[in-house]
Amino acid sequence: MGGRARIVVYAPDRAAAERACGDAFARIAYLEDIMSDYRPTSEISRLCASASGGPVKVTSELFFILQKSRELSRRSGGAFDATVGPLVKLWRTARKTGVLPAQDEINAARKLVGWQKMTLDSEASTVQFKLPGMQLDLGGIAKGYACDEAMRTLKRAGIKSALVEMGGDMVVSGPPPGRKGWEIEVLNAGSTFNVQRSGFKVQGSTFKVQGSGANTATLVNCAISSSGDTEQFVEIGGVRYSHIVDPRTGIGLMDRIAVTVIAPNGVISDGLSTAVSVLGAKQGRTLASTYPGVFVYIRTAR
User: Fold this and answer.
1) Given pLDDT bands bounded at 50, 70 and 90, which one contains residue 211?
2) Structural domains in the chain?
């Protein structure tokens, strides 16, 4: 999915660790073959090539993530939209060439974007597009899901303390031996990061935002995701455009926002960090408040 995956585990011995991690990486690879639009042979690429011609049956994993994407699209008013693929491709080219997409290209791509233009049939597990040329991009949610699934695989193998990371997304389980939790640094969070909603419950497990540094979170049994333009952006004509595209306008974000979300699982943290980035601080906090057990930190340029 365009990023590196890393797994850290505590296990009884090296052999047990390698077996568990091997299974977890295999699960990630399986999901990569389903959800990566970088691969022309992936399930999502094949779906995009045929779904405008009629309903297409998909795997349970892909249907699950498309359902979660549609739910977040509805709740965010379209700030998150898995059908944003045509616009993302334009801005990927812009980052490579340093040339802004032409307005007529953006207008044409916008006509193909809209979560309401994708029909999901839960009984048949099928997907259909209303327009030819529609493209899916799950970059804002699939890595979180892959982290969740890798962690679920590790737990089935008896690993009780682990961290799974893919890009800006992490999922952690029980704390390392002798520690209260996994200490995760959130760059530039500042001292206010520690005092907000410290020690709250998530599905029976407590995780804390506290700690050893002004911008360190100590986490157990949860997920953390960060979105922003720190690494992926393009500057054209003196304007900095993020790799995150607003599906509603077709333009890469320009407001220099950085978002970190702590949530019960990676699907929520990953998707919300993207949606909040697009919505901005005020509306983003309102959206995040509708999800139980979610903490959000938002930094904007001053």
Assistant:
1) very low
2) 168-299 (3.10.520.10)
